[in-house]
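For the sake of transparency, this paper describes our internal protein records without simplification. Because each token names a local backbone shape, the row as a whole describes the fold. One such record is reproduced below, unchanged from the form in which we store it:
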Amino acid sequence: MKKLKKWCFGFISLLLLFLLATFIFHRICLEKEKASLTPMGQQVLVNGHQINVYVEGDGPEAIVVLSGAGIASPILDFKEVSESLSKQYKVVIVERAGYGYSDDSNHSRDVMEVLSETRQALSQANITGPFIILSHSMASLESLAWQEKYPDEVKA
């Protein structure tokens, strides 16, 4: 019975040591990866965290691309769309908190808070409206709220 206990203790200790080593290795790799990434776009400070704003094209009208929930990197996911539209428009992609190159946030993630952060990010990046809103999935709620609360900023 003592051998079984020793064997179980040894196995659990080895397993915990392996998990700890894996965790430490993963954190080191994440830091190295973070150091090698160069953000695309401009970092602006909104509510104490960095929000990434990407602008492509210099047309007379601005299209603001709002991504839905779960889009890990809106800039890269909508790259083909922004490239094709940038020939005639200024295409702006705001990566909300926790996505792409933007920092995480512990602020509320309700629609009005996200809309407020999007508008602040555009203002900090000196991008003015009226805007043409191109929304994807759940971001349609944000675009509806924008149209309702700030109709002068949205071009129909």
